[in-house]
Amino acid sequence: MVTLKLHIRSVSRDTSSQMLCAGQSITFHNQVISASGTYRDTLTSYTGCDSIILLNLQVLPLIQTTLHASSCTGNAYVFNGHVLTQSGIYYDTLQAVSGCDSFLVLHFQILQPSSSSFATQVCNGATYTFNGHVYTQSGNYRDTLVNAQGCDSVCYLTLIVYP
């Protein structure tokens, strides 16, 4: 009589999780990986049985924020410590809470002042009111207002007083 004593060994399993930033990659058992997913490799353990290794990989998305700003000519605008004086698109890279890069894109515009001029006439003894100021003599007058964009708007008045 032959007695067989059979010992069944269990499969060894090892699972790990890892996070990467968008644009990064890792090597998992000779395979370069840069996309989220579950990856598996089967090896032979020291007992001769299968040893399964699982990797749960999460690739964190790129964080990009687009901003729009403007400033009037002659005024400085500060963007993350940089003083901007010209219109353009500006970029900055910060570190997000996840440890990955976070990108800021600023569309910046310098707004120009506006101006207008006009002439008018009144008879001697009459008055002309220009932006709250009353004038009685011929001359060239100027006043600075704020335009719809919030910048200076210079108004020029040529007043002629007829005798």
Features:
three-stranded mixed β-sheet, single chain, mainly beta, 163 residues
Total beta strand runs: 15
Give the count of helical stretches. 0
| Separation, N- and C-terminal Cα atoms | 143 Å
Radius of gyration: 37 Å
Descriptive report:
With 163 residues, the chain is mainly beta. 0% of the residues lie in helices and 64% in strands. It contains no helices and 15 strands. The strands form six sheets. It has a three-stranded mixed β-sheet with strand order 1-5-4, with no helix packed on it. Strands 6-10-9 form a three-stranded mixed β-sheet, with no helix packed on it. The mean pLDDT is 89.
Summarize the structure.
The chain is built from no helices and 15 strands. It is mostly beta strands and 163 residues long.
Write the layout of secondary structure elements.
Elements: E1 12-21, E2 26-28, E3 31-33, E4 37-44, E5 50-60, E6 63-72, E7 77-79, E8 82-84, E9 88-95, E10 101-111, E11 114-123, E12 128-130, E13 133-135, E14 139-146, E15 152-162
Parallel strand pairs: 1-5, 6-10, 11-15
Antiparallel strand pairs: 2-3, 4-5, 7-8, 9-10, 12-13, 14-15
